[in-house]
Amino acid sequence: MFIEKKHVPRRTVLKGIGASIGLPLLGAMVPASTAWADTPAGKTPKRFAFVGFPHGAIMDHWSPAETGTNYTMSAILKPLEPFRKHLTIVSGLRNKPAETPEPHAYIEQGWLTCVKPTEFGKADPDSGVSCDQMAVRYVGQETRLPSLELTAAQGSARLAWRTPTQSLPQEGNPRAVFQKLFGQGDTDQERAQILAETGSILDRVTGQAKRLQASLGVQDRVIVSDYLDSVREIERRVQMASKPDERALTIPDAPIGTPNDITEYFKLMFDLMALAFQADITRVITFSMDREASMRTYTNLGIAEGFHPLSHHGNNPQKMDKLVQIQKYHAEVFAGFIKKIEATKESDGTVLDHSTILFGSDMSNSDRHNNDPLPSAILGHANGKIKGGQHLKYPQDSRHGDLLLTLLQRNEIPVKAIGDSSNGLSEV
Fold first, then answer.
1. Helix axes 218-242, 174-182, angle to 10 degrees
2. What is the pLDDT of residues 290-348, one digit of tens each?
3. Which CATH number fits domain 46-172+283-428: 3.30.70, 3.40.720, 3.40.50, 2.40.160?
4. Which of 48, 64, 145, 393 is 20 to 30 Å from the Cα of 175, by its Cα?
5. CA distances from 33 to 10, 36, 222 (A)
């Protein structure tokens, strides 16, 4: 592919008072008469997302009965059927280092580190550094935000560990996330004040956006127009969520900017993640869909019990059925994120083609609080390095750390070990 249009630098941003909007990858970002692959812009980004949910899964409804490519999709993962060719289900893995007598206090710390929390930093300086932050060392310096840590729960989980003693706080307010991605200012407080005083971000870059579009070819104009429409739509939804109403007043602890509707909350956070990838604002994201010992009630599914009490199901069929409903619902809203990045074209493929996304839990059977086998699903192809379209089942006591190691090594991240990992998983 050769480009003949006017050149636009890859790091071009639209700037106005309190606004800084990065652009998606455009054909015009390649110098005239230059092959795309021979330019910095043409080097396909390596992206990672680690999306976790608590309280494990009802494994008989998570893992397909058959292995290989001709398996029947499980009940919980049914929403991911449209993305089957991009999906790798990995069964049989154990995260032994994360096993602890106090699971809700410590188990989440082991999901991406594969190190017992009490052993962080003892074996070597990287013992306790999470795999997302290992990736940041190699891809995080190429974007404005090295990584993005998000949650859809009150309180912050501790998934991302920059060092064995420093976990990274998660942001759960969509408005704050939007400001972090597109606002301008030295601090979150400054960005919030500027936005409050000056209105829509896009209104402050309209003139610059029009001048840019006038200089682009037809295909690039469509890409920019669709992208800015997405930014405006998400900004509108964030603003609507920020307006208190009678329902919000009954929950005084709910942060301003968090939708009352749980489905809209999930969708908004996932849409922000998709925009962050599309605009190349960050290439590494961790997202906790809920927290350990969550008391969230999924009344939208007709379930009145709290999530955590329900997770102690005692093999009660009615409770287990409700858990399957919740777990399938998590897969459903996650599937919306996959659909969006699959539809986002760039260079020689899509954002999904160039991403490695782990969707899973730090726990297996929530009634037993065990870590074997973990529910794990991979979406994306790591720029052609992950096959997709298969269910892999490994022998008992195979290591979760080997999966994390494989995900990084497929993306040419030169790490030799993650926690108790021994070898990569060649079949992935």
1. 140
2. 988 899 999 999 999 999 999 999 999 999 999 999 999 999 999 999 999 999 998 88
3. 3.40.720
4. 48
5. 16, 9, 22
